[in-house]
Amino acid sequence: MAFGTLDNNDSAVMSEINMTPLVDVMLVLLIIFIVTVPVMKHSLEIDLPRVSTAPQLEKPDVVKLSVDAKGGYKINGASVSDEALKKELDEMATHHPQPVMHIYGDKQVVYERVINVMGMANKAGIEKVGFVTDPGN
Asked: What pLDDT score does 1 carry?
């Protein structure tokens, strides 16, 4: 059985390409371009700020703040009271660049003490706060 015969004689086969699928694809592409071209032409003129891509030469200090099992605070190993901690955090926030604060919380400490440190750091304006955990089993 031939694909496209002209008459009942099976020896004559039509050798023309069926153009209908090609025309369908071309029409779909035309519609896509008609819809997308006006969208691409409408753009906003925005004056973006310029920044330096030079690497930061001055590394920020790392402050280790630990909360022991009893809820006491230590900054770089030195014990501090709640009031002294607030003053220390306010002073750290004024440094340029701001120090990075790493919080070490004992697993036996009441969670509220760690949250209090985070709140104090937030109120002081310290932007970079991280938690240090033990990756043990």
From this structure: 44
